User: What shape does this take?
Amino acid sequence: MGSDERVYQGNYQFSEVFTGWWPQLVLENESGYFERQGVVLRVRPDGTMIYMEEFQAIAEVDANLRHVPFDRREFEVVFDVLGFGAERVLLTANLPESAVDDVGLNQWRIEEVRAEPDLGPPALASGAEGRVSRVRFLYPSRRSPW
Assistant: This one.
């Protein structure tokens, strides 16, 4: 039986068996810790690639906490493509049902998770042509009073 797509999963298949090209994703506001765990790449006949990765990371956010302890805040995590402009690589995001449960913020209760693809400023340092495709994950949250 044939399949409409090729699937590469795990570090060995992804890094050693898959011979194609894929974009390198960067956590734009990473704060020193980023550990990759599982990876799955699905390649469809039309050239579409679906890349899924599980990771743990710490993202840095500029937090204005003047309204403590009962304030609301929208935290942001931003991923973009290293070295290629949006005319070559366009990012989209699919949020799983468990997206709210998969993120932890000490002393904050996350109310929802949204993913917004957009275009970032030109990344001249990375050699990208034009604006960079990125996905912003937004976490509207309420501070826990205790």
Observations:
- The longest strand covers residues 30-43.
- The chain has a mean pLDDT of 79.
- The chain has one helix and eight strands.
